[in-house]
Design goal:
The structure holds two protein chains of two kinds. Chain A has helices at about 5-20, 25-30, 45-65, 85-95, 110-120, 135, 155-170, 185-200, 220-230, 240-250, 255, 295-310, 315-340, 345-350, 410-415, and strands spanning about 35-40, 75-80, 100-105, 125-130, 145-150, 175-180, 205-210, 230-235, 260, 280-285, 355-360, 360-365, 370-380, 390-400. By secondary structure, chain A is of the alpha/beta class. In chain A, the strands form two sheets. In chain A, strands 6, 7, 8, 9, 10, 11, 12, 13 and 14 form a nine-stranded mixed beta sheet that branches. Chain A is globular and about 65 Å long. Chain B has helices at about 1-30, 40-60, 65-75, 80-90, 95-120, 145-165, 170-180, 180-185, 190-215, 225-240, 245-265, 270-280; strands spanning about 135-140, 140-145. The longest helix of chain B has 30 residues, at about 1-30. Chain B is globular.
Chain lengths: ~425, ~290
């Protein structure tokens, strides 16, 4: 067939116009949906990245087995989350070069702060697994359209504070904190103390320890805590530093005399062995407690298959990643239903908020301000189980609408007045 | 007694720091090379120590035997110093900047070697090891016996090193080479062999230090660079090339860090480097170093 230049131009213009008016052409709809993942793969946060990727992989297999998202199979493209600068470059590569339909991932607040404005600029959907400390959401980007943020990172500290009041009130007078030396750790420690004060618990801070990112040498911190002899220790460490701290603190006799509150310990479940984790400490599993007695069929299937495949327990990172995958799927399907064709990126982004998802750890959804809402699980540890790490003697579950500030509120003002489920 | 716990914590750190810093001092004293890769030897000892401990625990040997085996593992992997020293030979007589760049390159290369063999996730050993020797308790004191054993091991190694250098024939040859390489060669000393021995010994001290921290800590890709920061503080305070300086510098840095973390946690590194700056300003050769003049 002999096509003249004028005919070709007409054909190209017609194709472009129909793409614009009616969405992507039919052949594009048969291509797999590509989800780009940005996950830490090295260093102390690698365990979080690995668990998250496994959660997504499990979800993708499940989606593809049941026909994909609106008939399109899903495939993932993985890139590493490192520094903000490098991760922004990888984000651009995923969007511009790999042509992914959506990017999910990110753990660090510092990195999300860098990548989020780029996502808005590129009009690309970015769904964050984590990285939402108050410094990350202090309205640097008040009304994002394409960026979806996780629950406030302080949720688990708020819940731990409330459980401390519930279980330990009247049993401690001196407190110490050993927390990560970045916004997450600093905010959690401040929130913990603010809530104790709000509920009239007078305490004296006898030691404040700050652990640098990636540090695995805690000898000096342990010696300082041993010298301070606190009645209660609050630690929001959750990376490789937490098992080191627990092991050394147990050997130094610190845990024999002090109550321990660890809101984010669940990430290290597999490393926190019974022989150095005391019973009766407040232990946070974030959004997925692997041994929840009322776990859904979905959670039981996931945990069972995960343990069989990887020989370790999953943690909340897998749940957060799975939730985002399913929220994107639900958004695509809802937008498709509304438009009657394959939806455009902004239509998908607009459709995601408000849809309730059954995630691995329970119900979850995105608010209209594109902040996630999920279930949180914490409780007192017990070593009476078949595992070599502790479970919860009793699991308290609270939906995050009771633990995180409402849209537009200032966190520090909100915790002074909010109606908490004490 | 609270402060006794604090001091013992500081001494534990000092013990490990001394091992690495003494290796650094030994190499500089004899070969005149500032070895930035000393942190990598420390990390190598840690990673290899973990591998050996995994096999040790599977072997069913009595658990109390782990400390001598850990020290042995550190010593064995330290023999990597023999081939590495060959790599350094071309830069012995070149400007210090070449030596720094080469050893810095080694530091970075080792990081990828660790990533290749052991992965990028921090590794730790079975928690039973740390408590295997029990705890000293009483009168407010609560110290794991392992910490005391590491301090004692370090003292023994320091004593052996001191005696070896001052009382043995090879020690005298090493000191003679350190004093004047050309003169030593003129009277028949094979300086190439001495350099290999000294560099390997420096390497072994670092790898033993790394192996010894494993029951209390974890092996990670960043541990090498972290240690270099402290080891150089030890060397500057004690005086470059002085073994006695390494000992005193390590004790100062270890105790200072412990006290700073307990009283003013934000000043952990600041406190150490304030002393470093003061030493550089008022006693540039360090407490036990020889003045350049």
């Amino acid at each position: 067939m002999n096509i003249k230049r004028r005919d070709f131009t007409k054909l190209a213009a017609g194709t472009a116009a129909s793409s614009y008016l009616f969405g992507a052409p039919a052949f594009a709809q048969q291509k797999p949906i590509r989800i780009g993942l940005l996950a830490p793969r090295a260093g102390v946060a690698a365990i979080v990245g690995e668990d998250s990727i496994r959660g997504v992989q499990w979800g993708v297999e499940r989606i593809n087995r049941s026909g994909g998202i609106a008939g399109r199979k899903v495939e993932i493209v993985i890139q590493e989350e490192t520094t903000p600068k490098e991760t922004i470059e990888r984000f651009r590569q995923l969007v511009l070069q790999d042509k992914v339909d959506c990017v999910q991932g990110l753990i660090s607040t510092g990195v999300t702060l860098g990548v989020a404005p780029v996502a808005e600029d590129e009009r690309a959907i970015l769904m964050c697994w984590d990285g939402t400390t108050q410094n990350g959401v202090q309205e640097t980007m008040p009304k994002p359209r394409f960026v979806f943020r996780s629950t406030d990172n302080e949720c688990e500290a708020v819940m731990s504070s409330l459980l401390t009041i519930k279980y330990f009130k009247g049993k401690f007078a001196t407190i110490a904190g050993i927390n990560p030396d970045y916004s997450y750790g600093r905010n959690n420690w401040e929130a913990f103390r603010a809530l104790l004060t709000r509920y009239g618990i007078e305490t004296k801070v006898v030691s404040e320890q700050w652990v640098k990112v990636g540090s695995t040498d805690l000898t000096a911190n342990i010696a300082a805590l041993g010298a301070a002899k606190p009645d209660l220790i609050f630690s929001s460490m959750f990376l490789a530093d937490l098992p080191i701290f627990m092991r050394q603190a147990q050997a130094a006799g610190i845990l024999a005399n002090a109550k321990l509150v660890a809101p984010a310990a669940g990430v290290q479940t597999n490393q926190l062995k019974k022989d150095f984790v005391p019973e009766g400490m407040i232990f946070g599993h974030n959004t997925l407690y692997f041994a929840h007695p009322q776990a859904s069929a979905l959670q039981k299937q996931f945990v069972g298959e995960y343990v069989e495949k990887y020989k370790v327990m999953p943690c909340s990172s897998a749940d957060r990643a799975y939730f985002n995958l399913m929220a994107y799927k639900a958004g695509v399907e809802a937008a498709m239903k509304t438009t009657g064709r394959w939806p455009k990126t902004d239509e998908i982004a607009d459709a995601i908020a408000g849809i309730e998802i059954e995630s691995l750890g329970g119900k979850a959804r995105y608010r209209q301000d594109k902040i996630a809402e999920q279930m949180f699980y914490q409780g007192l540890t017990s070593n009476k189980n078949a595992f070599d790490y502790p479970t919860l003697a009793r699991s308290d579950g609270v939906f995050s609408d009771r633990l995180q500030k409402p849209a537009g509120a200032d966190f520090w003002q909100w915790i002074k007045t909010a109606d908490f489920p004490v | 007694m609270a402060y006794a716990n604090l001091m013992l914590g500081g001494l534990f750190q000092a013990a490990v720091l001394f091992l690495v810093a003494s290796g650094l001092q030994l190499v500089f004293g004899v070969q005149k090379i500032i070895n930035l890769a000393c942190g990598s030897f420390y990390a190598l000892g840690a990673y290899f120590g973990i591998t050996v401990m995994v096999y040790f625990l599977q072997s069913g040997w009595p658990i109390w035997m782990f400390l001598p085996i850990l020290i042995g593992a550190g010593a064995v992997i330290g023999l990597i110093g023999v081939p590495l020293e060959l790599l350094l030979r071309p830069v012995y007589r070149r400007n210090e900047s070449y030596q720094l760049l080469l050893t810095f390159g080694l530091l970075l290369m080792f990081q990828d070697v660790f990533r290749y063999f052991w992965g990028s996730v921090p590794l730790s050993v079975d928690s039973r090891l740390y408590g295997a020797y029990g705890t000293i308790q009483g009168m407010g004191l609560h110290v794991p016996v392992y910490n005391i054993l590491v301090i004692l091991s370090s003292i023994l190694i320091a004593a052996a090193l001191g005696l070896g250098l001052s009382r043995t024939r090879i020690g005298r040859i090493v000191r003679a080479t350190a004093e004047n390489r050309n003169m030593a060669e003129a009277i028949g000393v094979n300086s190439a062999t001495i350099f290999t021995i000294v560099f390997t010994l420096g390497c072994v001290l670092g790898t033993i230090g790394g192996a010894l921290v494993i029951p209390t800590s974890a092996a990670s890709l960043t541990m090498a660079a972290e240690l270099v920061v402290e080891a150089f503080a030890v060397v500057v305070i004690g005086g470059l090339g002085s073994m006695r300086g390494a000992l005193v510098g390590a004790i100062i840095v270890g105790l200072l860090r412990s006290v700073a973390v307990a009283l003013f946690p934000e000043t952990e590194i600041l406190a150490i480097y304030l002393v470093v700056v003061a030493v550089l300003l008022f006693r540039p050769a360090g407490l036990f170093g020889k003045s350049a003049a």
